[in-house]
Design a protein that fits this description.
Layout (H helix, E strand, L loop, with lengths): L2 E3 L6 H5 L1 H6 L2 E3 L17 H6 L10 H10 L8 E2 H8 L4 H9 L12 E2 L7 E2 L2 E2 L14 H12 L22
Parallel strand pairs: 3-4
Antiparallel strand pairs: 1-2, 5-6
Helix pairs in contact: 4-5, 5-6
Length: about 180
């Protein structure tokens, strides 16, 4: 398992330069870890899906199942976009995909951390959008969850710039081929 090395600072200047901190997340060693390789029960047949309820007691909609099924096919070390999922499924919108993934009861088995925005920006994670000064969503959005997403992707060999954009566009996977 690779070691993750982050450089953190507690000075006031580091608060203003939060984006730069994330850029220094790196994998030490050659081994890539597939975070979706875990033991979580994932209903595959129609009967199980009809009776499945989340921890909150909610049912999973057919659209959510379609998003989760497609997301499970994204290879380790690759990412796709909310829009590409809509196109591949032939249904929904990027926002509906984001909403389904925000409520993903099967993470990390359904690797929602592998989805980014169409402009190759890190996008959202657990209801937060963006990191540091780019974080959106009001005061409750600290950017911590998106930083966690970048660290998870770094473990899988996917890196982002200091501004939160995908460094290597060849890692983008559209699922059509």
């Amino acid at each position: 398992m690779p070691a993750i090395r982050t450089q953190l600072s507690s000075s006031k200047a580091s608060v203003n330069a939060r984006k730069a901190v994330i850029s220094r997340v790196s994998i030490v060693g050659e081994e890539i870890q597939d975070l979706a390789d875990c033991k979580i029960h994932y209903p595959l047949n129609e009967n199980e899906r009809k009776t499945f309820k989340t921890r909150d007691g909610k049912r999973v909609t057919p659209h959510q199942w379609a998003v989760y099924d497609f997301t499970r096919t994204i290879p380790c070390g690759r990412v796709t976009t909310y829009k590409d999922i809509c196109v591949a499924l032939g249904q929904g919108s990027p926002r509906s995909v984001g909403s389904a993934l925000r409520n993903n009861p099967f993470a990390p088995f359904v690797p929602c951390h592998r989805i980014i925005a169409s402009n190759l920006y890190i996008g959202g994670f657990f209801g937060e959008w963006g990191t540091g000064v780019n974080a959106r969503g009001g005061q409750k959005n600290t950017g911590v969850k998106c930083n966690q997403k970048m660290e998870m992707l770094a473990k899988e060999g996917v890196t982002f710039s200091v501004d939160g954009y995908l460094v290597d566009g060849s890692l983008l996977w559209d699922g059509r081929g």
